[in-house]
Amino acid sequence: NGTDGARAPKVSCEERNTTGIERFVLQILNVSQDLMEFLNPNSSDCTLVLFYTPWCRFSASLAPHFNSLPRAFPTLRFLALDASQHSSLSTRFGTVAVPNILLFQGAKPMARFNHTDRTLETLKDFIFNQTGIEAKGDVSVTEEDWEGPLPSVLTKGIDWLLLFSVLFLASFVMYATVRTESIRWLIPGQEHEHQE
């Protein structure tokens, strides 16, 4: 009755058939695609999903490492989605910060990558510890991984929701300043004067 010290995987993944697939790449979902279309709730295959934003420097530094994962684990699927364009999914799966990596079995999130050191090696260790699937040994981050498909260069953009929020707040403050007498009851410590 001996133990070999090896832990059983936490997630039992059905490895996909790779026959006929020549190139293993990460798939990035566009704004019109829904993650649930890519996850089969009736199967036990596993998918690693990255929630990122193109203007986050941590997402950009993780990109080449995540781009190389499909070559290291050809029997698993890898998806990435812009969390700012898929905010309902971010809310649904509790991804309040980016980058955020979830391991799905079928359509159910099974594990979250919670390490600050986001390298190919730590990602390989995470996948092995969760699934028991070993990475191909000859895979490393290449120059091609720095180029895409996930961008490793920050993009500049306008966060329209933040801009709208600031404008709304500024207009409310201006309105409140102009209408101080009519909203006096909002200011703490101001008592209503009652005429009797």
UniProtKB/TrEMBL annotation:
Entry keywords, A to Z: Membrane, Transmembrane, Transmembrane helix
Entry-linked CDD domains: PDI_a_ERp44_like (cd02999)
Cellular component aspect of the GO annotation: cilium
Sequence ranges assigned to domain Thioredoxin in this UniProt record: 2-132
InterPro entries referenced in this protein's UniProt entry, alphabetically: Thioredoxin-like_sf, Thioredoxin_domain, TXNDC15
Ranges that cross the membrane: 160-178
Domain of life: Eukaryota
One GO BP: cilium assembly
Record keyword Transmembrane present: yes
Name this polypeptide is given: Thioredoxin domain-containing protein 15
UniProt source species: Acanthisitta chloris (rifleman)
